[in-house]
Amino acid sequence: NRWYRARCFARRNALALGLGAAAVVALVGGLVGTLASLRDARIERARAETAASRAERTADFLGNLLSAVDPDRARDLDKTLLYEILDRAANDARRELEREPLVLAQIEDVIGTTYHQLGEYDKANKHLAHALELQPAQALRERLALREKLANVDGALHRGETDTAREYQAIWAERVAAFGPDDRDSLRSEQLAIYQRAVNGEPRQAGEQGAVLQPRLERVLGADDTTTLENLQTLAIVHGELREFDAAEKILKDLIERYRRLHGDANSGVFATQNSLAIVYLRAQRYADAEALLRA
User: Fold this and answer.
1) Separation of alpha carbons 46 and 50, rounded Å
2) DSSP letter string over 26-94?
3) N or C: which end of the chain has fewer CB within 10 A?
Protein backbone atom coordinates (compact mmCIF):
# COMPACT_ATOMS: atom_id res chain seq x y z
CA ASN A 1 0.00 0.00 0.00
CA ARG A 2 0.96 3.67 -0.05
CA TRP A 3 2.40 3.71 3.50
CA TYR A 4 4.63 0.72 2.79
CA ARG A 5 5.96 2.28 -0.41
CA ALA A 6 6.56 5.58 1.45
CA ARG A 7 8.56 3.80 4.19
CA CYS A 8 10.65 1.98 1.60
CA PHE A 9 11.34 5.23 -0.23
CA ALA A 10 12.32 6.92 3.04
CA ARG A 11 14.78 4.09 3.94
CA ARG A 12 16.41 4.22 0.51
CA ASN A 13 16.68 8.06 0.53
CA ALA A 14 17.23 8.73 4.21
CA LEU A 15 20.21 11.04 3.65
CA ALA A 16 18.54 13.15 1.00
CA LEU A 17 15.35 13.44 3.00
CA GLY A 18 17.34 14.39 6.11
CA LEU A 19 19.15 17.11 4.24
CA GLY A 20 15.88 18.33 2.77
CA ALA A 21 14.26 18.41 6.18
CA ALA A 22 17.20 20.33 7.57
CA ALA A 23 16.93 22.79 4.71
CA VAL A 24 13.23 23.25 5.38
CA VAL A 25 13.89 23.78 9.09
CA ALA A 26 16.63 26.29 8.27
CA LEU A 27 14.38 28.02 5.76
CA VAL A 28 11.51 28.25 8.22
CA GLY A 29 13.87 29.40 10.96
CA GLY A 30 15.32 32.04 8.67
CA LEU A 31 11.87 33.17 7.65
CA VAL A 32 10.79 33.46 11.29
CA GLY A 33 13.94 35.41 12.09
CA THR A 34 13.40 37.70 9.13
CA LEU A 35 9.79 38.33 10.11
CA ALA A 36 10.90 39.07 13.67
CA SER A 37 13.51 41.50 12.39
CA LEU A 38 10.95 43.20 10.18
CA ARG A 39 8.60 43.46 13.13
CA ASP A 40 11.32 44.99 15.29
CA ALA A 41 12.28 47.36 12.48
CA ARG A 42 8.66 48.43 12.12
CA ILE A 43 8.44 49.02 15.87
CA GLU A 44 11.63 51.09 15.84
CA ARG A 45 10.47 53.00 12.78
CA ALA A 46 7.10 53.67 14.42
CA ARG A 47 8.86 54.89 17.55
CA ALA A 48 11.12 57.15 15.48
CA GLU A 49 8.16 58.49 13.50
CA THR A 50 6.25 59.10 16.73
CA ALA A 51 9.22 60.94 18.22
CA ALA A 52 9.67 63.01 15.05
CA SER A 53 5.96 63.80 14.95
CA ARG A 54 6.04 64.80 18.62
CA ALA A 55 9.04 67.03 17.96
CA GLU A 56 7.31 68.65 14.97
CA ARG A 57 4.19 69.30 17.05
CA THR A 58 6.37 70.82 19.76
CA ALA A 59 8.04 73.05 17.17
CA ASP A 60 4.62 74.10 15.83
CA PHE A 61 3.40 74.83 19.35
CA LEU A 62 6.51 76.87 20.11
CA GLY A 63 6.09 78.77 16.85
CA ASN A 64 2.44 79.59 17.57
CA LEU A 65 3.31 80.62 21.13
CA LEU A 66 6.17 82.91 20.18
CA SER A 67 4.41 84.37 17.15
CA ALA A 68 1.89 85.83 19.58
CA VAL A 69 4.60 88.04 21.07
CA ASP A 70 3.79 91.64 20.17
CA PRO A 71 7.21 93.19 19.43
CA ASP A 72 5.96 96.75 20.00
CA ARG A 73 4.78 95.89 23.50
CA ALA A 74 7.64 93.50 24.29
CA ARG A 75 10.31 96.14 23.58
CA ASP A 76 9.01 98.16 26.55
CA LEU A 77 8.96 95.22 28.98
CA ASP A 78 11.63 93.42 30.97
CA LYS A 79 12.53 90.59 28.62
CA THR A 80 15.03 88.80 30.89
CA LEU A 81 12.75 85.82 31.50
CA LEU A 82 11.76 85.58 27.83
CA TYR A 83 15.43 85.57 26.77
CA GLU A 84 16.17 82.86 29.33
CA ILE A 85 13.32 80.73 27.99
CA LEU A 86 14.45 81.23 24.38
CA ASP A 87 18.08 80.43 25.14
CA ARG A 88 17.16 77.34 27.12
CA ALA A 89 14.79 76.15 24.39
CA ALA A 90 17.57 76.57 21.81
CA ASN A 91 20.12 74.66 23.91
CA ASP A 92 17.68 71.83 24.70
CA ALA A 93 16.66 71.57 21.04
CA ARG A 94 20.27 71.31 19.84
CA ARG A 95 20.99 68.59 22.37
CA GLU A 96 17.82 66.51 22.01
CA LEU A 97 17.14 66.93 18.28
CA GLU A 98 20.61 66.22 16.95
CA ARG A 99 19.17 63.38 14.84
CA GLU A 100 16.18 65.43 13.66
CA PRO A 101 17.85 68.28 11.73
CA LEU A 102 14.68 69.43 9.95
CA VAL A 103 12.76 69.76 13.21
CA LEU A 104 15.74 71.51 14.78
CA ALA A 105 15.85 73.88 11.80
CA GLN A 106 12.18 74.72 12.36
CA ILE A 107 12.80 75.55 16.02
CA GLU A 108 15.89 77.61 15.24
CA ASP A 109 13.84 79.50 12.65
CA VAL A 110 11.13 80.27 15.20
CA ILE A 111 13.62 81.41 17.84
CA GLY A 112 15.56 83.53 15.35
CA THR A 113 12.37 85.15 14.07
CA THR A 114 11.29 85.96 17.63
CA TYR A 115 14.65 87.57 18.43
CA HIS A 116 14.31 89.62 15.23
CA GLN A 117 10.88 90.85 16.31
CA LEU A 118 12.37 91.84 19.67
CA GLY A 119 15.15 93.82 18.01
CA GLU A 120 17.93 91.40 19.06
CA TYR A 121 19.50 91.22 15.63
CA ASP A 122 22.79 89.49 16.56
CA LYS A 123 20.94 86.63 18.25
CA ALA A 124 18.44 86.48 15.41
CA ASN A 125 21.25 86.19 12.88
CA LYS A 126 22.88 83.34 14.83
CA HIS A 127 19.75 81.19 15.02
CA LEU A 128 18.53 81.89 11.48
CA ALA A 129 21.98 81.11 10.05
CA HIS A 130 22.00 77.78 11.90
CA ALA A 131 18.52 76.99 10.57
CA LEU A 132 19.78 77.66 7.04
CA GLU A 133 22.76 75.33 7.56
CA LEU A 134 20.43 72.52 8.64
CA GLN A 135 18.12 72.77 5.64
CA PRO A 136 19.13 70.41 2.79
CA ALA A 137 19.91 71.83 -0.63
CA GLN A 138 16.70 70.39 -2.12
CA ALA A 139 14.54 72.31 0.39
CA LEU A 140 14.74 75.38 -1.84
CA ARG A 141 11.56 77.08 -0.64
CA GLU A 142 12.63 76.87 3.02
CA ARG A 143 16.18 77.99 2.24
CA LEU A 144 14.99 81.02 0.31
CA ALA A 145 12.65 82.00 3.14
CA LEU A 146 15.54 81.84 5.59
CA ARG A 147 17.81 83.84 3.27
CA GLU A 148 15.09 86.47 3.10
CA LYS A 149 14.93 86.69 6.89
CA LEU A 150 18.72 86.86 7.13
CA ALA A 151 18.78 89.68 4.58
CA ASN A 152 16.25 91.55 6.69
CA VAL A 153 18.34 91.05 9.83
CA ASP A 154 21.51 92.04 8.00
CA GLY A 155 19.84 95.22 6.81
CA ALA A 156 18.91 96.07 10.41
CA LEU A 157 22.41 95.25 11.69
CA HIS A 158 24.25 97.22 9.01
CA ARG A 159 21.75 99.88 8.07
CA GLY A 160 22.99 101.77 5.04
CA GLU A 161 26.13 99.65 4.80
CA THR A 162 24.77 96.59 2.99
CA ASP A 163 22.94 96.12 -0.31
CA THR A 164 19.83 94.46 1.07
CA ALA A 165 17.83 95.39 -2.02
CA ARG A 166 20.15 93.39 -4.26
CA GLU A 167 19.79 90.29 -2.08
CA TYR A 168 15.99 90.58 -2.20
CA GLN A 169 16.16 90.92 -5.98
CA ALA A 170 18.29 87.74 -6.17
CA ILE A 171 15.89 85.79 -3.95
CA TRP A 172 12.93 86.93 -6.04
CA ALA A 173 14.68 85.83 -9.26
CA GLU A 174 15.43 82.38 -7.80
CA ARG A 175 11.84 81.94 -6.64
CA VAL A 176 10.45 82.88 -10.04
CA ALA A 177 12.85 80.44 -11.73
CA ALA A 178 11.89 77.60 -9.38
CA PHE A 179 8.17 78.15 -8.75
CA GLY A 180 6.92 80.60 -11.39
CA PRO A 181 6.04 84.31 -11.19
CA ASP A 182 2.54 83.82 -9.75
CA ASP A 183 3.56 81.52 -6.89
CA ARG A 184 2.55 83.05 -3.55
CA ASP A 185 6.12 83.19 -2.26
CA SER A 186 7.35 84.60 -5.58
CA LEU A 187 4.79 87.39 -5.44
CA ARG A 188 5.61 88.19 -1.82
CA SER A 189 9.32 88.20 -2.67
CA GLU A 190 8.71 90.55 -5.60
CA GLN A 191 6.80 92.90 -3.33
CA LEU A 192 9.63 92.89 -0.78
CA ALA A 193 12.15 93.66 -3.52
CA ILE A 194 10.01 96.63 -4.59
CA TYR A 195 9.77 97.88 -1.01
CA GLN A 196 13.56 97.71 -0.67
CA ARG A 197 13.94 99.84 -3.79
CA ALA A 198 11.42 102.34 -2.43
CA VAL A 199 13.29 102.86 0.86
CA ASN A 200 16.78 102.70 -0.64
CA GLY A 201 16.73 105.68 -2.94
CA GLU A 202 14.83 104.34 -5.97
CA PRO A 203 11.22 105.41 -5.34
CA ARG A 204 10.31 106.13 -8.95
CA GLN A 205 11.44 102.70 -10.17
CA ALA A 206 9.74 101.09 -7.18
CA GLY A 207 6.51 102.94 -7.96
CA GLU A 208 6.52 101.74 -11.57
CA GLN A 209 7.09 98.11 -10.49
CA GLY A 210 4.55 98.32 -7.68
CA ALA A 211 1.84 99.74 -9.97
CA VAL A 212 2.32 96.84 -12.38
CA LEU A 213 2.37 94.29 -9.54
CA GLN A 214 -0.81 95.51 -7.78
CA PRO A 215 -3.41 94.10 -10.22
CA ARG A 216 -1.56 90.74 -10.31
CA LEU A 217 -1.64 90.57 -6.53
CA GLU A 218 -5.36 91.30 -6.46
CA ARG A 219 -6.02 88.73 -9.18
CA VAL A 220 -3.88 85.91 -7.73
CA LEU A 221 -3.97 86.52 -3.96
CA GLY A 222 -7.05 88.68 -3.52
CA ALA A 223 -7.65 92.34 -2.66
CA ASP A 224 -7.45 91.72 1.11
CA ASP A 225 -4.35 89.52 1.16
CA THR A 226 -1.50 90.73 3.38
CA THR A 227 0.95 91.02 0.48
CA THR A 228 -1.59 93.00 -1.56
CA LEU A 229 -2.09 95.46 1.30
CA GLU A 230 1.66 95.74 1.92
CA ASN A 231 2.18 96.65 -1.73
CA LEU A 232 -0.33 99.48 -1.32
CA GLN A 233 1.66 100.63 1.70
CA THR A 234 4.78 100.64 -0.48
CA LEU A 235 3.02 102.68 -3.17
CA ALA A 236 2.01 105.21 -0.50
CA ILE A 237 5.66 105.42 0.58
CA VAL A 238 6.66 106.01 -3.04
CA HIS A 239 4.18 108.85 -3.46
CA GLY A 240 5.38 110.38 -0.22
CA GLU A 241 9.02 110.21 -1.31
CA LEU A 242 8.05 111.87 -4.59
CA ARG A 243 6.08 114.51 -2.67
CA GLU A 244 2.83 113.38 -4.28
CA PHE A 245 1.01 113.80 -1.00
CA ASP A 246 -2.56 113.71 -2.31
CA ALA A 247 -1.97 110.32 -3.95
CA ALA A 248 -0.34 108.98 -0.76
CA GLU A 249 -3.26 110.25 1.34
CA LYS A 250 -5.82 108.54 -0.91
CA ILE A 251 -4.06 105.16 -0.67
CA LEU A 252 -3.55 105.36 3.10
CA LYS A 253 -7.17 106.33 3.80
CA ASP A 254 -8.31 103.37 1.69
CA LEU A 255 -5.95 101.09 3.63
CA ILE A 256 -7.28 102.29 6.98
CA GLU A 257 -10.83 101.43 5.92
CA ARG A 258 -9.73 98.01 4.65
CA TYR A 259 -7.95 97.19 7.93
CA ARG A 260 -10.97 98.32 9.93
CA ARG A 261 -13.30 96.18 7.84
CA LEU A 262 -11.02 93.15 8.15
CA HIS A 263 -9.88 93.42 11.77
CA GLY A 264 -11.85 96.15 13.55
CA ASP A 265 -10.65 99.48 14.91
CA ALA A 266 -8.15 98.22 17.48
CA ASN A 267 -5.53 96.52 15.36
CA SER A 268 -1.93 97.24 14.44
CA GLY A 269 -2.74 97.73 10.74
CA VAL A 270 -5.04 100.66 11.50
CA PHE A 271 -2.59 102.26 13.95
CA ALA A 272 0.46 101.87 11.69
CA THR A 273 -1.38 103.28 8.66
CA GLN A 274 -2.75 106.20 10.68
CA ASN A 275 0.81 107.01 11.75
CA SER A 276 1.93 106.86 8.12
CA LEU A 277 -0.88 109.21 7.13
CA ALA A 278 0.07 111.61 9.94
CA ILE A 279 3.64 111.66 8.61
CA VAL A 280 2.31 112.49 5.14
CA TYR A 281 0.31 115.39 6.62
CA LEU A 282 3.38 116.68 8.45
CA ARG A 283 5.49 116.54 5.31
CA ALA A 284 2.75 118.36 3.43
CA GLN A 285 2.71 120.98 6.24
CA ARG A 286 -0.87 120.08 7.13
CA TYR A 287 -0.14 120.26 10.83
CA ALA A 288 -3.71 120.56 12.05
CA ASP A 289 -4.72 117.39 10.15
CA ALA A 290 -1.72 115.52 11.55
CA GLU A 291 -2.49 116.61 15.12
CA ALA A 292 -6.17 115.67 14.80
CA LEU A 293 -5.28 112.23 13.47
CA LEU A 294 -2.72 111.53 16.19
CA ARG A 295 -5.15 112.64 18.90
CA ALA A 296 -7.99 110.48 17.57
Assistant:
1) 6
2) HHHHHHHHHHHHHHHHHHHHHHHHHHHHHHHHHHHHHHHHHHT--HHHHTTS--HHHHHHHHHHHHHHH
3) N
**pTM for the whole thing?**
0.71
Q: What distances in angstroms separate CA 258 from CA 246, 252, 253, 270, one per listed residue?
A: 19, 10, 9, 9
Backbone angles phi and psi of 45, in degrees to 5: -65, -40
Report the distance separating Cα 263 and Cα 267, nearest Å: 6
144 Rama class: left (phi>0) / alpha (psi -120 to 50) / beta? alpha
Q: What is the C-alpha to C-alpha distance for residues 65 and 60, in angstroms, rounded to an integer?
A: 9
Asked if residue 105 lies in contact with residue 127, where contact means CB atoms within 8 angstroms, the answer is: no
Are 134 and 101 contacting, i.e. CB atoms less than 8 angstroms apart?
yes
d(C-alpha 233, C-alpha 247), whole Å:
12
- Distance in angstroms (rounded) separating the CA atoms of residues 246 and 174: 37
The tens-digit pLDDT sequence of the chain (296 residues) is 545 454 554 455 455 545 555 544 455 555 555 545 555 556 556 555 555 565 566 666 565 555 555 555 555 556 777 788 788 888 888 888 888 888 888 888 888 988 888 888 999 999 999 999 999 998 999 999 999 999 888 887 776 655 778 888 899 999 999 999 999 999 999 999 999 889 888 999 999 999 999 999 999 999 999 999 999 999 999 999 999 999 999 999 999 999 999 988 888 889 899 999 999 999 999 999 999 988 87
The one-letter code for the residue type at 12 is: R
